[in-house]
Specification:
Helix 8 crosses helix 15 and helix 11 packs across helix 12. Helix content is about 85%, strand content about 0%. The chain is built from 18 helices and no strands. It is an all-alpha fold. The longest helix is centred in the last third of the chain and has 40 residues.
């Protein structure tokens, strides 16, 4: 059995319980004194005497009822007394069932979540004060403590044992095709293409000798060198002119050809079985390469080091951007009805899942805790919480008993 430890709040409850017990007992003593003082008196005192007698009966009856809940009155082994100590386990099970049916049911919680406006309240909290900075601070502290503990061996084992095999089994061709189509539709590849063209033009303009060496190897042996030099210069100038045209003309035919090529590739990756199979074969070959896990671990190590350094700076751009993003989210949750509705729906679904999956385990804490309590101490703990209010039953019983006794005596005299 677990010993119930009384805290500071329980000391206050105990003081209040004793005060109410004293009040109830004082009324009983007062009724007894009035009864003794008015005994064998006639006239109006007879009414008072009968009222006092009934008040004592009501007070004693209610004292017995209240006391019988927590202990045996006067220590006597009266049946159906000391209910809480002797039946605490069944009472705990009944309380658990009551809470499950009336408070922790999915319907009740779902209704509460619908009226709680979780999204709006969360948005107000995120956008107010320095709450976003506090979230970032706590998140940075947690991530900063967790990242160094992820060793390279653990990451490599996870990649080789779980992640890479899963990617090898999953068909990624439709996903890659959809992503590539989105890139083409948004024109996101144009910046990369521009960079490649600019770099190619700069390299070609600075490496005429390299071009001459490559082209010169393929010239006929019988061709004079001066002819080769003229041809090489012409090839070099035409290549530079073509690259400059592609670089400077957004509507160049080469650019449109690249767009068409990428669009067709995106379409084939999503719908052409042959291209899809070629992509999947290439993917499996790449993922099964012995150095893939090691290479990805090296990338992860570099990312981890950069991330640790970034989040360690309290005034760095990463933390500032994260805090601003959280504040922006808070503002959107207050103004965007669609987003707020989605958040409320997801919160309701999450709580519903928890109730469905773990509701019985959550509520079982009640019965498990009470069953570990000692019977006498359990009765004392429960009495501390409800005993003060129960003393009003004794007080009301005394008052009501007096009124009933007075009424009965009056009716008897009239009859």
């Amino acid at each position: 059995m677990t010993t119930v430890v009384l805290g500071a709040a329980d000391v206050v409850r105990r003081r209040g319980l004793r005060q109410m017990r004293a009040v109830a007992l004082s009324l009983l003593v007062l009724a007894a004194l009035v009864y003794v003082l008015t005994l064998h008196h006639g006239g109006a005192w007879a009414y008072v005497n009968n009222a006092a007698e009934a008040a004592m009966v009501g007070a004693l009856a209610d004292w017995f009822a209240v006391t019988a809940l927590f202990r045996r009155p006067l220590g006597l082994p009266i049946p159906h007394t000391a209910i809480v100590p002797t039946r605490k386990d069944s009472l705990a099970e009944s309380l658990e069932q009551f809470v499950t049916e009336n408070f922790l049911s999915e319907a009740v919680v779902a209704e509460k979540m619908r009226t709680a406006e979780v999204g709006r309240r969360a948005g107000e909290w995120l956008a107010a004060g320095n709450h976003a900075e506090r979230i970032v601070e706590e998140g940075a502290r947690t991530i900063g403590a967790a990242l160094p503990k992820l060793g390279d061996d653990d990451v490599t084992a996870f990649l080789r044992g779980s992640l890479l095999p899963r990617f090898a089994k999953e068909p990624l061709s439709p996903i890659a095709g959809h992503f590539l189509q989105s890139v083409v539709d948004d024109g996101a590849h144009h910046a990369l293409f521009d960079l490649l063209i600019v770099e190619a033009y700069d390299w070609l303009s600075e490496n005429r000798d390299t071009v001459a060496e490559v082209v010169g190897r393929r010239a006929p042996r019988w061709s004079p060198r001066w002819v080769d030099s003229i041809v090489i210069d012409r090839i070099h100038r035409e290549a530079l002119t073509w690259l400059a045209g592609v670089r400077d003309d957004p509507q160049h035919a080469a650019r449109k050809a690249v767009d068409r090529l990428l669009s067709q590739l995106a379409e084939d990756l999503q719908h052409d079985p042959e291209m899809m199979e070629r992509f999947e074969t290439f993917k499996r070959r790449m993922l099964s390469h012995p150095d893939m896990g090691t290479s990805l671990t090296a990338v992860w190590d570099a990312v981890r080091t950069a991330l640790i350094d970034a989040i360690a700076d309290p005034n760095g751009p990463l933390r500032a951007r994260a805090a601003q993003t959280i504040k922006d989210l808070g503002k959107r949750l207050q103004t965007d009805d669609e987003l707020r509705a989605r958040v409320d729906a997801r919160a309701s679904e999450a709580v519903g899942y928890v109730i469905r999956t773990y509701g019985s385990e959550i509520v079982s804490v009640i019965s498990d805790t009470i069953e570990r309590w000692d019977g006498r101490e359990a009765a004392e703990r429960i009495e501390l919480h409800v005993g003060r209010d129960l003393q009003f039953i004794r007080i009301n019983g005394t008052v009501v008993g007096a009124l009933v006794g007075l009424t009965i005596h009056a009716v008897s005299q009239l009859l």
